[in-house]
Design goal:
alpha+beta; seven-stranded mixed beta sheet; four-stranded antiparallel beta sheet; 7 helices; 21 strands
């Protein structure tokens, strides 16, 4: 039976992606577990795995195509000896790497809609409606919930965490996301007792005509034309997502900021002593950075103040059981935040080696989704760039992010006398719906005390 291979949604924020590379050719045999292609999402390059067996009958979207919409057909899987349907759909948003509107196939001919008959076969027929086939690499969702035919429940990491904290059985929740995926809104609806959230109703094909006396709305003013010499650099998928999410954060999350100067001399001495004692190679080798100790200090402080390690929802503030810290890493395409899980329970050497591995794989685009999706608190450190002071934008749905600046020699007063110390300025950005001013000040004061007395991290 011929089956359409659809563009998968490989992250909760993914609406389109780039088909970077096909790892199978037309005519190749496909087995369950084989890697069909590499897909560039808004965060990383990920492998697309097959769950069905057959032959890759036709590639509809060539490798290198950008802007391929989620659930758009990218190929056709057929059984051994079966002919490839001539009317297979080829609507994929941008097969030629640009955003086109003609919905044409890679060869440029008009795409034909696919129709499934009662036996599930695909046949070509122009202009006919088609039930959306399920993408390879994802089990088909059950009609009543977000569970696949193999019993696996498809849910976003946030939805899973919310369900676990609220004691909700995901098998009983109907997903409203792509391919029946359970998302945040479904869990919120289940908490209200109203069942799973339903997909938004489709917009009518045409709006009713306005009353004759009503004045037509004025078009939005166009931005001024750029007349200076310039070159246009197309926005990557990651850059578009960063722009959208950070704009939403500043517009919808009530930020406020608390700053403190923190002396680093004791922490720098501890770091030097531990690095001098560390093995230079072998399984136990490590080399601590200031950022590693900052992560550990922030994790220990979050354990003391669990109400900062939280997320806002309209029904409740969700406090996380684990201290999972997202750490901002700069990559050529923008910014990504790999996560140090249960950071309060890990030693400094473990945090250091784990962070080096996560940062290296982030820069090469090899992070797994669970390694950068989630987290309850973020750290953004620009000390290595010599930045004296800055305020970071909150990474929703988290309620806090710590901006860490450079340590520098500054005059300080100690015991009534002028002295010189290594000082860094840290700024805590918090969501005022979750964290009040006094709580933010208490958290930052506790963090300062831990950094200035770093031996407490060894206890």
């Amino acid at each position: 039976m011929a089956t359409n291979i659809l563009m998968p949604a490989l992250s909760p924020t993914m609406t389109e992606g780039t088909l970077a590379r096909w790892l199978k050719k037309e005519g190749d045999t496909v087995k369950s577990g084989d890697i069909l292609a590499e897909i560039e999402t808004d965060k990383a390059t990920m492998e697309f795995e097959a769950v069905d067996e057959g032959v890759l009958g036709k590639i509809l979207v060539p490798e290198g195509s950008e802007g391929v919409k989620v659930n758009a057909p990218i190929g056709i899987l057929v059984e051994e000896g079966e002919a490839v349907p001539s009317g297979a759909p080829a609507t994929h948003g941008a097969a030629n790497g640009k955003g086109g509107e003609g919905n044409t196939s890679p060869s440029g001919s008009p795409a034909l809609e696919a129709v499934k008959d009662a036996g599930g076969k695909v046949a070509g027929a122009a202009g006919q409606p088609v039930p959306a086939p399920q993408p390879k690499g994802h089990a088909a969702p059950a009609a009543s919930s977000g569970s696949g035919s193999n019993g696996r429940v498809f849910a976003s990491p946030l939805a899973r965490r919310m369900a676990e904290q609220a004691g909700i059985d995901l098998d009983a929740v109907k997903g409203s996301g792509p391919n029946g995926r359970i998302v945040k809104a479904d869990i919120e609806a289940a908490q209200k007792g109203g069942g799973a959230a339903k997909p938004a109703a489709a917009q009518p094909a045409a709006a009713p005509a306005a009353a004759p006396q009503a004045e037509a709305p004025k078009p939005a003013p166009k931005p001024p034309a750029i007349t200076a010499p310039h070159k246009a650099i197309p926005n990557s998928t990651m850059r578009k997502v960063i722009a959208r999410r950070l704009s939403e954060s500043k517009q919808t999350v009530p930020h406020f900021y608390v700053s403190m100067d923190i002396q680093l001399d004791a922490l720098l001495k501890l770091r030097a002593d531990l690095n001098a004692r560390a093995p230079k190679d072998g399984p136990g080798a490590f080399k601590l950075s200031v950022n590693d100790l900052v992560i550990k200090a922030a994790a220990a402080t979050l354990r003391k103040f669990p109400n900062v390690n939280a997320t806002w929802t309209d029904e409740a503030i969700l406090q996380y059981d684990d201290v999972d810290i997202s750490v901002a890493v700069s990559i050529p395409e923008g910014l990504i935040t790999p996560i140090v899980r249960k950071a309060d329970q890990k030693g400094l050497a473990t945090i250091s080696n784990e962070m080096k591995d996560l940062a290296a794989r982030a820069k090469s685009g090899k992070l797994k989704p669970e390694e950068f999706q989630g987290g309850g608190f973020s750290i953004s450190n620009m000390g290595m760039f010599g930045v004296k002071d800055f305020a970071a934008i909150i990474n929703p749905p988290q309620a806090g992010i710590l901006a860490v600046s450079a340590g520098e020699q500054r005059p300080v007063v100690k015991d009534g006398a002028l002295a010189v110390a290594t000082v860094m300025t840290c700024t805590l950005s918090v969501d005022h719906r979750v964290v009040d001013g006094a709580l933010a000040a208490e958290w930052l004061a506790s963090f300062k005390k831990t950094v200035e007395d770093p031996l407490s991290l060894m206890l």
